[in-house]
Amino acid sequence: MQGNWTGFENRRRRMIERLARMGIGTRVLQAMDRVPRHLFVEEALQTRAYDEMSLPLGLGQTISQPYTVAKMTELLLGGSSQNMRRVLEIGTGCGYQTAVLLALDLPEIYSVERLRPLHERAKQHLRAAGLLAKARTVCGDGYLGLPEVAPFDGILVTAAPPEIPLALLQQLAVGGRMVLPLDEGGVQYLWLIEKTPQGYRETCVQEANFVPLVSGMDT
């Protein structure tokens, strides 16, 4: 892994130990241990990168706290990642969640970001972390997904819509898993959606706090 770890190794180690105490499993911990989170935030905030808190990215966006990233990743994988070959992330943001997915060595990771400045910045961060060559990043409307690449075994949404975008449901493969926050009248909950041959199974996981998912392009 590229990137300057000097001064950050102890903070990263404490983050991993804290997440383990919070119940996160080994595979996700190993992936997060491989990603230099401090490279994905502004330089002035790098000393807080491994703390259990969200941080501002500018443009009204944030990087989620480590536990949220870990929990969403774990929900996406389920009990086994063997069938998780093609994954779509909606909301690249700074690229950190993308990097964690890439660090799992899943075969295909696609990520969509509607804000071009963030899209470009995420590519810079992924390049600094030595992961850009593996990433498939797209500047586009996340509400539409990527129908030309579908179906996806996993879909992870990092911003909160008021209801599940129909296009994303349609792009989820049978046996696939979608993890997303939903804004239910100002209160957000994290949901797991599983697509079975008989239909969709929905599980409410926990309360959440995400920026809104916005439709359309803003370049």
UniProtKB/TrEMBL annotation:
It is an enzyme of class 2 (transferase). This is Protein-L-isoaspartate O-methyltransferase. Its EC number is 2.1.1.77. Keywords: Cytoplasm, Methyltransferase, S-adenosyl-L-methionine, Transferase. Coiled coil: none annotated. GO terms for biological process: methylation; protein repair. Belongs to the methyltransferase superfamily. L-isoaspartyl/D-aspartyl protein methyltransferase family. Catalyzes the methyl esterification of L-isoaspartyl residues in peptides and proteins that result from spontaneous decomposition of normal L-aspartyl and L-asparaginyl residues. It plays a role in the repair and/or degradation of damaged proteins. It catalyses: [protein]-L-isoaspartate + S-adenosyl-L-methionine = [protein]-L-isoaspartate alpha-methyl ester + S-adenosyl-L-homocysteine. One of its GO terms (molecular function) is protein-L-isoaspartate (D-aspartate) O-methyltransferase activity. It comes from Neisseria animaloris. One of its GO terms (cellular component) is cytoplasm. InterPro entries: PCMT, SAM-dependent_MTases_sf. The gene is pcm_2. The keyword Transcription regulation does not apply. It is found in: Cytoplasm. The active site is at 64.
